[in-house]
Amino acid sequence: MGNLTLEELSGRTIVAANNLTLKPGQEAFIAPPSYAVAEAYFAPDTEWPRVVMDGNDVVGFIRGHFDKETSQEEFQSCIWRIHIAAQAQGRGVGRFAVESLAAEARSRGFDRITVLWEPGDNSPGEFFHALGFVNIGETRYGETIAALSLN
Fold first, then answer.
1. What's the number of domains the chain is made of?
2. pTM confidence score
3. Residue 21, SS3 per DSSP
4. Percent of the chain with pLDDT over 70
C-alpha cells in the first residue's frame, strides 16, 4: 500500500466506504459504514468513524467507540466496526486502522481496546489475534470478546 492516512467519515467519503468490496463471506459479519454517520451525529463525543485512505482511494473503514461512563466494560473503548477492501486485505491497511484507533484510545486515557466478533468461517478472529488481541470472554449471544492492552 502507498501512503495510508485517516480521514473522518464524511459526505465526500461515505459512498466509497459503503461500496468497499469485501472478500466473499465477510459481508455476514458487518453493517454498512453509513450506519456510523447517523450514530456519530447522536453521540459525537463517543463515536469515532474514520476511513483509511491510500492516496485518493478509500480502502478501509474503522469506527471506534469511547465512553468511560458506560457500565459495560467491553464497550468503554472498542472497535465497533472495521471494513477493509478485499484488494487491500493482507497489505497492512487493517493493522494501520487498528493502530490508529489504539493511538486515539491512548490519547483519551484508555489502557486497552476491545472488539467483539461472531465466530465462524471468514470471521475476523485470526486477524485480531495476529494483532495481539486476547480473548477475554463471550457475550450471551456467543460473540467473542477480545482485548488489546495499550500499555
1. 1
2. 0.85
3. coil
4. 81
